[in-house]
Amino acid sequence: MKILGYGLTAIGVAYLFIAFNMDVSVSTSSTYVPGYGSVGGGDVVNLDLIARRQNHLIIAALVTIVGVLMAIFAPNHSTAVKDPSKNQKKDFDGVRDLASDPYRIWLVNFYDIERNEVLNRIILGEKTFQTLDDALMSAHEMENEKQIKAKEKAEASRLAAEKAQAEWEKDRTKTFAILIAAFASIVSIIMFSSYQQSSSEQKQLEALNKNLSASFGITLPAQAKNASLGKSRDQSYLCNGKEEGQILQFETKSEPKEIKDLFSKIYGEGKPLYDSLKEKYDWTWKYSGNYYELNMFERTSYIKVYLCKTKL
To answer: Which of 101, 160, 211, 242 lies 20 to 30 Å (CA to CA) from residue 24?
Structure first.
């Protein structure tokens, strides 16, 4: 589980790095309009991509926190892999009594007790004995000492585990609180950054609507995005061939007819710019001493709108 935790942590950190560097701008293509030149083009910030980046950052932060938790608190089970090619000797599971023949036979086999014909003595490891009983007694003492050490080791492991559990129980609330606070901090930073960006965009939109109300007598449609208001001389084409004109441009998913009808409620019925195109994309109005020209260009998932204003 700890290895899985390390893996999740690494993935989460990499995911965070990728999410932080996600591009939230989209390229807009330009369109050539006869008599005017190229319209549109350039990179603009896309609100949908901003929201997606925020979601990716939250998921990456969650994966990282889960990985850290698993790496810190998951039990570390390490099981030794036994080599089947080695002759592994089984432990004795009966009564360890030297008067018991099964136990005596087990001692002989387990400790490799044998008679040396040259020395004419019983050999146990590097020791020799006059009789088999003496060798078996020595092996029995070695076995008892081994059992005592095994019990001491098991007891030490148990005490260490109990101590670790007690420390974990003591610090668990504090540790979880720190990790939750870290996760909450990451999410808060992401949300605050998104809020600041949205707030800035909202202020820009309010300022733009104020200027639009004063100069065009309109406010932006509810679905308008990436809106801007500028002078004709600063754009890639002239409004009605005049440099002093003003250009409003924005993107929307509304239908062209809806956009045209929205402006017609303010400027009047108007008429098509080109009779051959009927009333779908381009429209003009003469209103209150000004000339308004509406141009709309279809993109993959939205409509690019340009509204020009010049003096009659």
So the answer is: 211
Backbone φ, ψ for residue 278 (5° rounding):
55, -130
Q: The pTM is what? A: 0.43
10-residue mean pLDDT profile of the chain (312 residues): values are 79 84 68 48 65 83 81 58 53 86 90 89 91 91 90 91 80 74 78 71 74 79 77 61 77 86 88 69 87 86 87 82
246: helix, strand or coil:
strand
Residues 141, 51: Cα–Cα separation, whole Å: 74
Instruction: Give the contacts of 231 (CB within 8 A, at least 6 positions apart).
Output: 243, 244, 245, 246, 247
- Encoded tokens for 172: 């668990």
CA 149: distance to chain centroid?
Answer: 50
Q: Yes or no: say if 264 and 278 are a contact pair by the CB < 8 Å rule.
A: no
User: Where along the chain do its domains lie?
Assistant: 216-312
In this structure, are residues 300 and 293 in contact, taking their beta carbons and an 8 Å threshold? no
Classify residue 92 by its DSSP letter: P
Tell me how crowded residue 78 is: count the other CB atoms within 10 A of its CB: 6
